[in-house]
Amino acid sequence: MAHSHPHDAQMAKLHAELSHLEAYSNAMDVTQVTPRDVAQFKERVHSLRGKFHDTLRARDQEEIRSLKHLKNMFILLLVISLAMECILLYLDAEDDSNRKRNALLSVCAALLFLLFCVF
């Protein structure tokens, strides 16, 4: 399934502008190009390059935020499952106080790990 990115529309617009610049440069009669034409063309290319870089930078930052969020959610699920397993060990320990204490310590360690990693 294709993933549509919010910056795809901006990239398509920039590609269209690049194609227009390329067609313009191909259609130019080099014998009639003035220094002003060259300066304007360079300015348009420089502007377009800046727009591409800005769009790519924004896209990269958005991807990084998304990956950080996914990482935090994965850690949260991992710690919750570990804590649930420790609680089950505690409930299974019956009257063995050492096993119950170890299970409770494991739950506390899992929660501390969660606090350390996510927050």
UniProtKB/TrEMBL annotation:
Its keywords, alphabetically, are:
Membrane, Transmembrane, Transmembrane helix
Q: What stretches pass through the bilayer?
A: 73-91, 103-118
- Name it: Transmembrane protein
